[in-house]
Amino acid sequence: MREKYGIDAPGVVRTFAALGVVLTVVSGFVYALANAWWAYVIATVLLLTALTLLTQSLWMVYSSLVGKRRVWERALADLPLRGDERVIEVGPGRGAVLVTAARRIPSGRLAGVDIWRPQDQSGNGREALLANARAAGVADRVDAHDGDMRQLPFPDNDFDLALASLAIHNLPPADRAGAVTELARVVRPGGHIVILDFEATAGYADALRAAGASDVRVSGLHWSMHPPTRVVTAEASRPSRTAS
User: Fold this and answer.
1) pLDDT at residue 240 above 90?
2) How far apart are CA 226 and CA 244, in angstroms?
3) Which residue in 64, 84, 93 sits closest to 227, CA to CA?
4) What is the average pLDDT value for the chain, to the nearest integer?
5) What is the per-residue DSSP string for 10-56?
6) Least CB-packed of 17, 90, 169, 209 within 10 Å?
7) How far apart are CA 172 and CA 94, in angstroms?
8) DSSP H or E stretch at residue 191
9) Transmembrane segments in this chain: where (predicted)?
10) CB 7 within 8 A of CB 120
11) Average pLDDT for residues 85-90, to the nearest whole number?
């Protein structure tokens, strides 16, 4: 059995593709019937718009199937991992990032927490995540939980590493800082938080700093994904040293 991770934001991809095809057909009709310069201009604009939409839909498919995992492989490679960490990912969907992390952390234990919305990823569901974990040979170390990233069902300091990939932006803007604070809460002092998203990353960084995290960094844009993304990394707060 092969791993099958689906497409992120499938409704958006379908809409872009459908509109691109329709506008291509319409522009062809306008070109065929044009008998004035302005008609050719309209046809050209329609065709360019169609090509833009089709390009975006193909870019999003590439982003889901290839680009996202490449960005995460680099992000995880940059962390000082031992290989036996406890890892949590919020919004793992069908598990592309969680399985990538499991391969990077061969003796670790990983948990995915999601509400499994179909509009976020095609075929989204906890069983799809577990099926991909089995196909990748890491199912014995991966658990799937129903839950909300704003109220994680875990105690403080329970994980060494927390991940979020294209997940937090799905929350109402007023709830995003709380979700980031939850990630920081469940990570032990000295552990790490890594968040990938295409919007609100500066706000995530501010929320991590407010939660006491250190070494908070926001990467440049990663153009292998559409929309282009940034990676926010931080180290969870350590207890302050007091003089004896």
Assistant:
1) no
2) 53
3) 64
4) 94
5) HHHHHHHHHHHHHHHHHHHHHHHH--SHHHHHHHHHHHHHHHHHHHH
6) 209
7) 22
8) strand 187-197
9) 12-31, 37-62
10) no
11) 98
- Say how far apart CA 108 and CA 105 lie, in whole Å: 5
pLDDT at 34: 86
**Is the full-model pTM beyond 0.85?**
yes
Q: CA 180, CA 212: separation in Å to the nearest integer?
A: 12
CA-closest candidate to residue 90, choices 110, 69, 75: 110
Tokens 């292998």, residue? 224
Starting at the edge strand that comes first in sequence, how are the strands of the sheet with 230-235 ordered?
142-146, 109-114, 86-90, 159-165, 187-197, 230-235, 214-218
Q: Which two tokens stand for residue 74?
A: 């680099």
Segment 13-54, tens digit of pLDDT: 999 999 999 999 999 999 998 889 999 999 999 999 999 999
Q: Which two tokens mark 206?
A: 């501010």
What phi, psi does 220 have (nearest 5°)?
-70, 180
- Separation of alpha carbons 13 and 29, rounded Å: 25
What are the distances in angstroms from CA 187 to CA 75, 182, 214, 224?
18, 9, 13, 29
